[in-house]
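[job 4417] fold queue: 2 targets
>>> target A
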Amino acid sequence: MSEMPDIDWEILVGRIRAGRCVPFLGAAANISSVSLKYKGTPLGADVSKKLAATLAVGPRDPENLPRVSLHLEVRKDRPYLEEQIEKLIDAGSCQPSPLLRLLAELPFDLIVTTNYDCLMEQALKEAGRDYRVLVQPPLGFRPNAPELAALAGYTGVIVYKIHGTFGDGDRASSDLILTEEDYIVFLTAVTGTADRIGVPNLITGRLQTRSLLFLGYGLEDWDFQVLYKTLVESLESRKKFKSYAIQKSPNQDWKLFWEKKGVVIYDCDVYAFAAGLRGQYPFPPPPGPAIPPPRAADSNA
């Protein structure tokens, strides 16, 4: 494991304390851990292989979830595809990971996630945090969208679900970005159109003025490369904030590629990183035992 040097811990912890950091979560933010006895959600490649196995003749790359999803949608239909994805991820049988529980304790006001599950929301709820969910429509938001107007002046945590969401007790599933076609539609709408808002300004403004912290997310994905190039990389170099990515055994070519763009990748298990961050962050000490009031003087003394 490559250790994060003190200077980067200082920057990262300082940015988190100052509200100048945005976590960006991928599927491995909930990965299962034998050592921690934690059962999490499967990675996209594992879901893809199981879906591909149901096709008599599948795509050449069975680990490519958007491609496999496209094949399944063509042969079945969209409701069938979404039902199978939700069944295989089976987030309802999981609890928030140690990483999500830590993030829920820290002073973030924006958390971006590509995950469809509601485990981040569950962690925030259990931590007693005030939060609201914003789901990105693939075609963009309509002008004067009520969900955007409702966030004007909001100071709690925004959970921005960029690829859609599964349903929970309060809402139905919506706007799942699953197939290659879905990703193409979404990426063509990122910057907005004459009658649609792409990524809202309240999100873009925070992404462009803060350090990003990628956790359990594959920076090799072409959809993310387009998103980053459009929203962040276009900024002047002196205005860019240093960002960090935590990945297990990252590809060295991609590591060099992203370092040139201001994203430093550290080879580290996300839960080991979470333990390190918990140790580095200056949490207030837990309250000590209550001290009983002094006893009144014995009147017979």
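>>> target B
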Amino acid sequence: MPPLHRPDLHLRSATLTAAAAFVLTVLPLRAQTPAAIPAVPMPTGAFSQPPSADPIAYAPTLTFDIASIREIQPAGDTPSWAIGLVSPPHSCQFQARAHPVKTLIQLAYGFAAFQIAGAPDWINTSLYNVEAKCDHSVDEQFARFTDDQAKLEKEHMLQALLADRFHLKAHWETKQTNVYELEIANPKSGSKLQPAKVETVDPAIPNVARPETPGPDIQNHMDSHGHVMTVRYLTTKGMAGLFGSMVRATVEDKTNLPGRYDFTLHYTYQSTDPDSYPTLTTAIQEQLGLKLESTTGPVDVLVIDHVDRPSEN
């Protein structure tokens, strides 16, 4: 395994994270299709999927009504508590604090950091606070979407925001490179993952509101031994995206495990301290019963053709 890199990971109640690139199967609408909203110019091939992606059965149309974007400096002195992301699954609300543009692109297109090429260095180093909102009627539409539709709408809105304010233009390319496969470490004993705990309501009890379908919840903090990452309601495909962002390489889900899972991972990236947590790959194997196997394969790369620093507002 190549040396692992430490990412900026501080996500909570997010739709897809930098860290996490979740490719979901799209389901038919349960309610009426939202009325078309005039879209700002989109990147080249915007919302077109890379060659390996599943066909799209639902076309998103929504955009943010207002957005505030402010650069913060210096990037190197930003404390961890100042970094955050709020993006509820069934709401158009989006708030990113102290995030580089590369991370915003990751969230908009659902791909990990290494899958972005051709961009200037400042998209990695310059940090921005972004807050975007919509009319209440849009939130009402979001509430009626399936999880997959809500995810596609939020990504479309972020793509439109990047095209409008950062003048982002991009296209897809496929390249052969090193990848990892997420597998069950011991097929005989299975994984150590625990099914996600979802709040339920007894249908026999009248007049009780049903709980909303939860979205993935990823939180990461450090203690004296290393990192502690708590994950809720995540699929193994989501884990592949999350671990891919952490090792900066494509990770493909080969576990064939259905459903969603909760887990807490104690790990470090590189340490010689005997009291520290195990390295990331060791922690994944020992604590989750999964493993990352190195191989090669085609990777979809988002190539940046043009991007500008936004004007402050």
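[job 4417] complete. Note on B: Residues 138 and 182 are 37 Å apart (CA to CA).
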